[in-house]
Automatic annotation (TrEMBL):
SUPFAM superfamilies per UniProt: Bet v1-like
UniProt cross-references to CDD domains, sorted A to Z: SRPBCC (cd07812)
Annotated source species: Kitasatospora misakiensis
Domain of life: Bacteria
Name under which the protein is recorded: SRPBCC domain-containing protein
């Protein structure tokens, strides 16, 4: 094939990519910045045992896929736990916003420079010899392109469901 054909094909690919990006940006601008996702899990473990797993941040890399390591940080001004998670997409700093052991935990992103933010509320409700865990993500995605990808490609509830699958696996192994 001639060089002109390859050059034309390259220009066409760039044009298609630019068009897709523009469409995704337009779609993302129409989506709300905030979203709420929820998921639940029935566990054959008492709330206190599940609580210990939810709050043992140093052990997260052992059961959460994609998490390379965790660094503990100085506590918040009110004494709340803070930590930084490192994974394949960089790092994110989190903090405990509210803690009522062993029934309610609220964590949040503590890094205002990220293109996203939000909180996760974990509620443990006793159920027979075990408990039910409900996780509610109240997320914010500030950049329109990321919003479109989150909404249309990965799904806004993907993080909650991935977390619950990993936790179910971890608790089954205990």
């Amino acid at each position: 094939m001639s060089g002109r054909w390859w050059a034309g094909a390259g220009v066409a690919l760039v044009a298609v990519a630019a068009g897709l990006t523009a469409a995704a940006l337009a779609a993302g601008r129409r989506l709300p910045v905030e979203h709420v996702s929820e998921g639940g899990l029935e566990l054959d473990r008492p709330p206190g045992e599940v609580w210990d797993v939810l709050t043992a941040v140093d052990l997260f890399p052992a059961w959460r896929p994609g998490l390379a390591h965790v660094e503990r940080l100085p506590a918040t001004a009110t004494g709340g736990l803070r930590w930084r998670e490192y994974g394949k997409h960089g790092h994110t700093t989190y903090e405990v916003v509210e803690s009522a052991a062993p029934h309610r935990l609220v964590t949040g992103i503590a890094d205002p420079d990220l293109p996203y933010g939000g909180t996760w509320t974990y509620v443990l409700t006793p159920a027979g010899r075990g408990c039910t865990l409900t996780v509610t993500e109240r997320g914010e995605v500030y950049q329109p392109l990321y919003r479109a990808v989150s909404h249309y490609v990965t799904g806004e509830g993907a993080t909650v469901h991935r977390y619950l699958r990993a936790l179910a696996h971890r608790m089954a192994a205990a």
